[in-house]
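[Archive record]
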Amino acid sequence: MSPHTYYDFAWEKGPLKLHFTPNEDDLPVICNIDKKEIETTSSSLPLDACIGDILIAYQSNTTQMSSSIAVFRDFKHALRILQTSSFPITLRFRSRRNDVPPAILDESMRNIKSNGFVEQLIVYTWEKSHSSLGLSFSYDPCSLHSVIVNIDPLKFSTSNDGNSKPETGDFLVALLPLDSKNECERAIRIDTMHFHGVVSLLRAVSKPCQLMFARLQINDTTCGDEQEIKDIRNTSPCSLTQHTAQVKSSFGDTRESKHSRTRTGGHERQCDARNSIHALHKRKSFMIKAESNGSFDQVHSDKDRQPLSNSDKDESKYYEFQFSGGELPFTLEDDESSTHTGNAESDQAYHASIKGVRHASVTVPFSEGDVLIGLDRQDLRGVSVQQVLNQLQLIRSPTRLVFFRRAKKRNVSITAALADAFMLFLI
């Protein structure tokens, strides 16, 4: 019998205010919950949801005969389903509210388990003369281990008897009281302790003491690179807003591997070799949001958000217009700037640009040269101007049109910027 607990959530309407990030198994893990927005909107949120839970399966309820539960293959597959499935849809989560982080140290608590993801152990002495440790801790939503996320240079003592000092991203794995006659028996194991227990322990511990940290092997490559995400272009009843993970640290993930998920849990379970994933501060998280009447300029409010490329630093370049049919307030022509990119894929990007504005009094500030990149839930890459016009003529109800505002100075990488628009707003 599986030791894990699962819960289902029927997502029927409204935004799903959950941020997801991929773990080492490439499955979506809840890394943040927008509770403030939920209190003021009709957002949807599983009541049992907590940070660290894994989204593992779904069931589409749109047909008369309900389909069977299907398991997500990977993070990209999960995004695609969340983007394209119609309401209602049932989401199945694996709860990790009571899960214990997998052990990093062996039984002696002096050596690293043979797991292949810990680089070294670092021992730091917390002197009695220092009332404050000067370290801020959080936990990795994927591994659930306690990790250093900030170091206060004014409070943190840099002296460590010539040994390596802890750094941002190191895991706290053990505490060794220095007044003990037998350090091995008095050593306190932290790598399998819940985060709230770690915080309580650090507040109550007697000094001097030694803290043992595990430094993980770090994957320095960035996550969510442009080539990997480009395939996810379908729009849906929701849009995905991209943010960087709120926990700013740099370490690889250490949660149990795919094969160990079906095993019996326990503090001493074997840590299998992990798949290498990106440093946490370089991982991307995605929040599921419903369609909004507001401008796309208001989607990103986090000033610390790291854009996927330098081509999209000005979010005001994107705007939308609700078109209900009839005469268009602008004329369209074939955009020829994409033929100068030198990239075969980009050269087949967007073709419909504004040639002229018919109604000067229109509230949306159309400009000559602006490019039509989205029609409701359709990405218009590769769609000819004539095909776009044919689709516009069929519109009989309010439909969202998404535009890219081109700078007066033509940029040879314009299609790269347009591609990023969908990567950031509509993926």
Notes: The longest strand covers residues 118-126. The CA atoms of residues 322 and 400 lie 5 Å apart. The chain has a mean pLDDT of 67. The radius of gyration is 26 Å.
